[in-house]
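Deliverable D4.2, example record:
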Amino acid sequence: MATGTEQGEVDIPKPDAGFAFKAEMFVMNILLGYAKVFIGIGVLILLGALVVGQYQNWYRQNQRNTSAVAAGVERDVKAALLAALPEGDRAQAQRYGLGVIDLMRVVPEVDDGVRAELVKGAEGWMAAARDGQGTAASEAAARAAEIYRRLGMAAEQRAALELASDTGGAAAKLGAELNLAALDLDEGSVESAASRLRAVMDAKAGYLSERAALDLGAAYEHADRNGDAIAVYQQFATLFPGSARAEEAQARLTKLLGSGG
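Output generated by the structure prediction step:
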């Protein structure tokens, strides 16, 4: 029996050409209506990439410039220190390529002329650090701080360490804070030192944090605050499990507990 379709076949309606046209126009209207938005987003992405690229280029150039200035300062200070050595020692120091810090250990006496060169060098490193950013600037400030420390210029040393802390990354900041804590202790500021050391300790940054914990315990011991020192040493094993310095912390703890705390 004949019908519109053979028995068992499915009658699939033909697509509505008008509906397809309307759908296409709907999509086109959306695209055209938001074209400015899409173009704006694309422009912002391109501008963002350009800004990031320019900043990275500036940062790399800044690092190179800072390093170049710091190297020039190093060269001048090193020449002054070498000149202060006896001829035989000078030749040996040059052979081993000793830097400024090592040369300061072997120079027998820092006279006024050498001291003036060291101060000039420290000021040069500070200027490089102020004009720079990142690791190179932090290292320059740290070098200045070491010169000031060896010359007994505490106020200048503190300023250099604070600059090193402000310009460097996380590790440089923690290292500077350790040295600032040591300076605080030299000046009798136990609470200020303890605050810095505890912050470094709580950062759980490996060696620096472990050293901060041991320094904090020692600071409390020297201040006759054995209870606080015991608490720090007891906390050491929890904060730094498996540390190579755990034995030292335990030895200090055992000694304090054995003395009655």
